[in-house]
Amino acid sequence: MICCPGGDFCALANAKSIPIAEAIQRKFSNHEDLKDIGPLTVNISGCMNACGHHHVGNIGILGVDKKGDEFYQVSLGGSAENHTTLGSIIGPSFAQEEIPGVLEKVIAVYRDQRNDNERFLDTFHRIGMGPFKEKVYAKAD
Ligand code: SF4
Question: What is the pTM of this model?
Fold first, then answer.
């Protein structure tokens, strides 16, 4: 995970980044789980200046200002590898407290749909945004 200093330290920020990174870290703290998830980059920027390179994160998180409130836009499928790819925005942005749960759902789709030893990025390119979007925005029962 890469995270810019965000609103805690940067005057240009639209939103905080560090608390988002901390919340994600807390959510995914189990070593065996992380080993099972495998290679997956998460990049967080507090504004469009993109110091956290959110646009090339497998999962990218960008802080945005919505009428004075901090929200976060999530993109999937970015890559800074040889075949560089910009992530695609999954849909409407989320409140800070929603982000760990959003990542949990995205990763659940990956684990459910992946082929043997397939990385997150490769699964994303094979199945596309649809299944991720469906799961993340599904209404709670
Ligand atoms: S991305 Fe924006 S908030 Fe983050 S360090 Fe760069 S300028 Fe500051």
Answer: 0.96
**For the chain, which domains are there?**
2-136 (3.30.413.10)
- State how far the Cα of 111 lies from the Cα of 30, in Å rounded to an integer: 16
Atom of ligand 1 nearest to the CA of 14: 3
Measured between alpha carbons, how far is 79 from 57 in angstroms, rounded to an integer?
6
- Interval 69-114: pLDDT, tens: 999 999 999 999 998 999 999 999 999 999 999 999 999 999 999 9
Distance CA 45, CA 4 (A): 5
Q: Which atom of ligand 1 is nearest to the CA of 50?
A: 1
- Cross-strand pairs, 70: 65
